[in-house]
Amino acid sequence: MIRVSPLIDRLVEALQMLPGVGPKWATRMALNVLQHNRGGGSALATALADAVAKVTRCAQCRMLCEAEVCAICANPKRDERLLCVVESPVDVIAIEQAGSYTGRYFVLHGRLSPIDGIGPAQLGLDDIAGLARERGIDEVILATNPTVEGEATAHYISEALAGAPARLTRIAHGVPLGGELEYIDGGTIVHALQGRRSV
Q: Is 59 inside any structural domain?
């Protein structure tokens, strides 16, 4: 990376902590803000500082929010008998945007990864069985990603809930709507065939 000035270099390095942002993209963003939008840069800095200082985890579902309880958990119209376990707040946003799920969530903030030192305690996995019993949950939906770590996390949760009265389900994986089989990878087709249902 070409060194421009200490402050610009520091800004470029800071921007690289964002996912998918490498040195070139970070340099472009930094220079664009400094050249064309200093007011926007100041607003971004203020918003980021406020969010870092005030955003925490919801006491019930662990979603990111600035209140003790997030808007989803505070909503009395949500179905308290349904609990969807997701890996990250981004997953909650994706499910909410789809608009059909009306239950509650439990956000893990990651997935099991012993190599990275992420175990059940870091993800709050030991709390899920207690939550299912305490809240009278009828169904726990495992919505972890279909990766090796996501599948291991789902398996661990299913083992932890083995004695709980809640029904345990897993989100379907397979061919996307509008997808054509000839363009789908083999692993996705295997998941789709294993998760088939009656019509």
A: no
The CATH number that applies at residue 164 is 3.40.1360.10
Summarised one tens digit per residue, pLDDT across range 98-108 is 889 999 999 99
Residue 17 belongs to domain spanning: 6-54
Burial of 139 (C-beta count, 10 Å sphere; 0-12/13-18/19+): middle
Walk across the sheet containing 79-86 and list its strands. Answer: 103-107, 79-86, 139-142, 167-170
The residue among 92 and 4 whose pLDDT is bigger is 92
Residue 154, judged by CB atoms within 10 A of its CB (0-12, 13-18, 19+), counts as buried
**What DSSP line would sit under 76-128, residue for residue?**
TTSEEEEEEEESSHHHHHHHHHH----EEEEE-SS--BGGGTB-HHHHTTHHH
pTM over 0.70: yes
Give how many domains the chain has, as a whole number. 2
Residues 104 and 164 in one domain: yes
CATH code of residue 39: 1.10.8.420
pLDDT category at 199 given cuts 50, 70, 90 is: low
